[in-house]
Design brief:
- The protein has 329 residues and is mostly beta strands.
- 6% of the residues lie in helices and 15% in strands.
- It has two helices and 13 strands; from the N terminus they run βββββαβαβββββββ.
- The chain has a four-stranded antiparallel sheet with strand order 4-5-13-6, with helices on both faces.
- The radius of gyration is 26 Å and the shape is elongated.
- The relative contact order is 0.14.
């Protein structure tokens, strides 16, 4: 009688193949046994096949990210798009494949200052949900975990709200930037310097449109904008970043400091969520007005009435990050 070996034959003539090795023919994946995120989007599946007479190997092999639908481009989505073992890596921690990292959409607002072009969102956010995870990276209040959720700058996402200034400080630092100061935020909103036009709101285009009150061709998500568009009462609500439901709701930086395309628009700097900025240690200002009822006057770039501490959270309040180095390089 012959001993059974792993060769695809029934050596011992008992009607079974390769029973000397367990799991022959069972399903497996290219990254079995590797710590998360494994092979990321390059993960493939296969089956266990013979690897010599007495061993098995998985038939699946890691794919090349260049063959994926999105290529090797790393985007802020909670996935390892370039399959280098890191997820949503930033310009200050680019991972094993330094060519590919998340390049947030930012607008240059001074010689060495950039700001998120969109209100910050979580990687798991969609057009209808804000996603999950807190922004604590280095320390957290008692009972809170360090989720180390990254902050994205992307269009079409429900912004990150119910976030504390303490979280904003930590997550923006982890992104390679910092929480925006009041003056930095106001520079972004007023488009001055260097345009020569001091805007009162983040309305497009620069000039009279950003210094005069809203009309039928420009409006942001602040009162009395109605979330549903219906005539059946107050329907205020939060919209995705750069929502198509709004008209000309962005600070116009086109042609300034080299800003072009999506970088030329700082969307929703007026309205949608109020934005946390820093005035001093543990003193923060909520800027830009929000969807929950702020008036147009209370949403002006220069309106700094609302002061809060580092633990404040509210359903109409979010943020964006600022950078002294270009986070896309």
């Amino acid at each position: 009688e012959n001993d059974e070996i792993c060769d695809g034959l029934d050596n011992d003539c008992d009607g079974h193949l390769n029973e000397n090795v367990m799991n022959y023919g069972a399903a497996c994946a290219s990254d079995d046994g590797l710590p998360a995120p494994g092979h990321g989007l390059c993960r493939t599946t296969g089956t266990f096949v013979c690897n010599g007479n007495h061993a098995l190997a998985c038939s699946a092999v890691k794919a090349d990210c260049s063959t994926l639908a999105g290529g090797c481009t790393e985007v802020c989505d909670g996935l390892d798009n370039d399959c280098d073992g890191s997820v949503d890596e930033t310009f200050n921690a680019k991972g094993a494949n330094a060519t590919h990292f998340v390049k947030p959409v930012v607008t240059k607002i001074a010689s060495a200052l950039w700001i998120y072009s969109y209100e910050a969102s979580r990687p798991s956010a969609t057009a209808v949900i804000s996603g999950t995870g807190n922004g604590y990276w280095t320390s957290a209040p008692s009972g809170e975990t360090l989720d180390k959720t990254v902050a994205c700058s992307a269009s079409g996402k429900i912004p990150w709200f119910n976030v504390s200034p303490q979280e904003v400080e930590q997550v923006c630092t982890a992104m390679g930037g910092a929480i925006c100061t009041v003056s930095q935020w106001q520079s972004a909103c007023t488009t001055n310097p260097p345009s020569g036009v001091t805007c009162r709101w983040g309305y497009n285009p620069r000039g009279s449109s950003c210094t005069a009150t809203r009309n039928g061709s420009k409006f942001c998500n602040i009162a009395p904008y109605d979330f549903s568009g219906a005539a059946d009462g107050d329907q205020d609500g939060l919209l995705p970043t750069a929502s198509a439901s709004l008209q000309n709701c962005w600070a116009d930086w086109s042609g300034l400091l080299g800003n072009t395309g999506s970088s030329a628009k700082i969307s929703d700097v007026t309205g949608n969520v109020r934005e946390i900025t820093k005035e001093a240690t543990n003193v923060y200002r909520l800027m830009g007005g929000g969807f929950s009822g702020d008036s147009e006057d209370g949403s002006e770039c220069g309106f700094t009435f609302y002061g809060v501490d580092q633990f404040f959270k509210y359903f109409d309040t979010g943020f964006r990050c600022c950078f002294t180095s270009d986070p896309t390089l």
